[in-house]
Structure formats: structure tokens, C-alpha cells
Design brief:
Peroxisomal Thiolase, Chain A, domain 1; 10-stranded mixed sheet; about 375 residues; globular; two-stranded antiparallel ribbon; alpha/beta
Length: about 375
């Protein structure tokens, strides 16, 4: 049974103070259905991705919130998996389609993060770590531990981290929905404010508002729409101290293995990927854990230009989380929607999306192909 992506929507990402969480959900949902050339009543069910609306906005019961904007009030549910909420919602939607219960579903994710202070937002996001075993930790500090270990093991340099940020900001110039449309030099990244050694401000993805949606169907699309041909879901311990390694994310390896097997593909087949670069070190880890580069080689390859146009693989053409923005519940869906659009535009035939929750406890990988 083939699952087609027949509709996509991505709102502007950024500090969207004039829009509420409900506004973002509504905008993305209606635009995705319209782009699929469907009526709202054609949607059989809705899968909603969101991490922290209860803490950020005081709003729960998000399935009903979104379904309220559809005249027939279709079945709807909310899925939460920290920053991997979007990827998990896509998995749940595909499971429902493959059972035959539904034929056409909407998957929509949104987050409204900038209406609270940075301190409050940091506290909410810290809930994606172990609140007892890692009490007091922030996500910059947890990823800084991963970066430190990677430096000690493989000699990863400041320049290798900075190149990731420079490249992703350059890519975001071509993404009209990106939060930032500004290039940075290596020197500017190197000299940005230290957040958690060795990570600096320009190593970190921002707080963002935004939404993204896709319409998935098992109905015959006439061979026009991109297909979701592979999916994988990997897990690891919530606490970093319990991991077997701090130089890779086992959840990513597990998810990638499943997705590649599903699609009968090799990682070397992919000309373009969207990976979860919540921090610059996270992009390097992802490229190594996916198998695109050997352990310790993603940094040197990035410096050599192998992760952009003209190189081995185009990594984060949207600008990634770093420059496109990271409205947590929307991110995993945005990755798939953006890649599907590139395929529909004829720019690529095959793509991979990689979405991570927390410091790597959850990972989701999707493979998208032209029909």
C-alpha cells in the first residue's frame, strides 16, 4: 500500500507575536488541505504534533482544537515526543492509513514558544530531559557534553562546528519561511556569545513560533505526488549518563536502519537530507550516525564543502533548525513537507528526513521518493 504526500503547508517561522497557537494550527491545516485540492470534509482523521502547549500557552486538548476548524469534526489526537513530536505524528498517521481505517489524513504540528521569557522557555524545553537525573541541565549543556566528547575522541575543531552554522544560514536564504535570512562568517560564529562550552550562540537553534502540515493518502494520486517509502523509529535511554556512547546517538542508527530497509535503499543513494541540527554538533552526529560519513569524518567533510550543493550530499537545504527555526512540534513535519516540495519541483528524486527528540532518546527517519 503506497502512501502519498498530496498536500503540504509551512508557515513563516520566527517570533510571530500577532498569531496565536490556534492561528498557526488553522493556517497550516487549511493550506495543506487546499494544496491537496481537497475539501475539508475529505480528511478522515487528524494527527497533531506538539510538545509544550500546556506549559507555553496553557492549552491542552489540541486534537479537539484543530478538529474544531473542520465542519465534520474528524477524529483527532495529539502526539508528543519532545522535538520528535512531528516525526512521531507522521508515524502514527501512517500506521492508521496502513490498517485501512482511514484513506486520507492530515498531520499538523505547531509550537508557540516566544510569548514567554527565555528562562521560562528553557525550563519547558528541559522537560525533554530526565527531570530528576539531569536536574538543572539545559539542552545547550547536554549537547555541549556530546560536543566535548566528540572533540576529545575525534579532534573535532571549532571551525568544523562553525562551518555547519555558516552553511545552514546560507541555505536558509532560499527558504522563504525561514526565521533567519542572514549570512554569517566563520569569525562571527567563532566569536558569538559562549552558551555552554564549546557551544556558542550561533551554534544553537532559536526559540521559534510556526507550524507545518502534510496531507497523506493511500488513494491513487495518478503518479504525481511524492511517496513516503521508508520509516524508522529508534529509542535510547532518556539520561545521557546511561548511554553506551556519547559520540553517537544509537536511536538515530536504529531508526535509519529500519527506514533504509523499508525503502530498500542504501544511505549512499541520497542526494539530499534534512537532519536535526538543534545544535551544530547535532548535525555532525546525525551525518555520522546515518552512515553518510564515518565516525569523526563529518566535521572535516563539512569544511571541505561536502555537505552543500556541489558536494557529496546537500544537508539541510531549508537552513535546518539552526536557520529555518525550530518550533518544536512543527519541525519533523516541516522537514518532510520541505523535502516533498523539492521533489515536486523536480530538484531531487529521493530524500531523507531525520528528527530527534531530546538529547537523542527518540529518533525518527523518513524516506521520501518521487512517484
Amino acid at each position: 500500500m503506497k502512501i502519498s504526500i498530496i498536500g503540504t503547508a509551512i508557515t513563516k517561522f520566527g517570533e510571530l507575536w500577532s498569531l496565536s497557537l490556534e492561528d498557526l494550527f488553522k493556517q497550516a491545516s487549511l493550506e495543506a488541505v487546499e494544496s491537496a485540492e481537497l475539501d475539508l470534509a475529505d480528511v478522515d482523521a487528524i494527527f497533531v504534533a506538539n510538545m509544550g502547549a500546556g506549559a507555553f500557552e496553557g492549552q491542552m486538548h489540541l486534537g479537539a482544537l484543530v478538529a474544531s476548524h473542520f465542519p465534520h469534526h474528524p477524529p483527532a489526537m495529539r502526539i508528543e515526543g519532545a522535538c520528535a513530536s512531528g516525526g512521531l505524528a507522521l508515524l502514527a498517521a501512517q500506521d492508521a492509513l496502513l490498517t485501512g481505517r482511514y484513506q486520507t489524513v492530515l498531520v499538523v504540528g505547531a509550537e508557540k514558544m516566544t510569548d514567554v521569557s527565555s528562562a521560562e522557555a528553557t525550563k519547558v524545553l528541559a522537560g525533554a530531559a530526565h527531570i530528576n537525573n539531569e536536574y538543572g541541565s539545559t539542552f545547550p549543556s547536554l549537547y555541549a557534553l556530546l560536543a566535548r566528547q566528540h572533540q576529545q575522541t575525534y579532534g573535532t575543531t571549532r571551525k568544523q562546528l562553525s562551518v555547519v552554522s555558516v552553511k545552514n544560514h546560507r541555505h536558509a536564504l532560499d527558504n522563504p519561511y525561514a526565521q533567519f535570512h542572514k549570512e554569517f562568517t566563520l569569525e562571527q560564529v567563532n566569536q558569538s556569545q559562549l552558551v555552554a562550552d564549546p557551544l556558542r550562540l550561533l551554534d544553537c537553534s532559536p526559540l521559534s513560533d510556526g507550524a507545518a502540515a502534510v496531507v497523506l493518502t493511500t488513494k491513487n494520486n495518478g503518479g504525481r505526488a511524492p511517496l513516503l517509502t521508508g520509516r524508522g523509529h529508534g529509542m535510547d535511554t532518556l539520561t545521557l549518563a546511561d548511554r553506551d556512547s556519547l559520540t553517537s546517538l544509537t536511536a538515530t542508527k536504529r531508526a535509519a536502519k529500519q527506514a533504509l530497509s523499508d525503502a530498500n535503499r542504501q544511505i549512499t543513494d541520497f542526494p539530499v537530507v534534512e537532519v536535526h541540527d538543534c545544535f551544530t554538533i547535532a548535525e555532525l552526529l546525525a551525518l555520522e550516525d546515518l552512515g553518510i560519513f564515518d565516525p569523526g569524518e563529518a566535521g572535516p567533510a563539512s569544511v571541505d564543502g561536502q555537505t552543500t550543493y556541489g558536494g557529496k550530499v546537500v544537508v539541510n537545504p531549508s537552513g535546518g533548525l539552526k536557520a529555518s527555526g525550530h518550533p518544536v512540534g512543527a519541525t519533523g513535519i516541516k522537514q518532510v513537507a520541505y523535502l516533498a516540495r523539492l521533489i515536486m519541483e523536480g530538484k531531487f528524486e529521493l530524500a531523507l528526513a531525520h528528527n530527534v527528540g531530546g538529547s537523542g532518546a527518540t529518533a525518527v527517519v523518513h524516506i521520501i521518493e518521487a512517484s
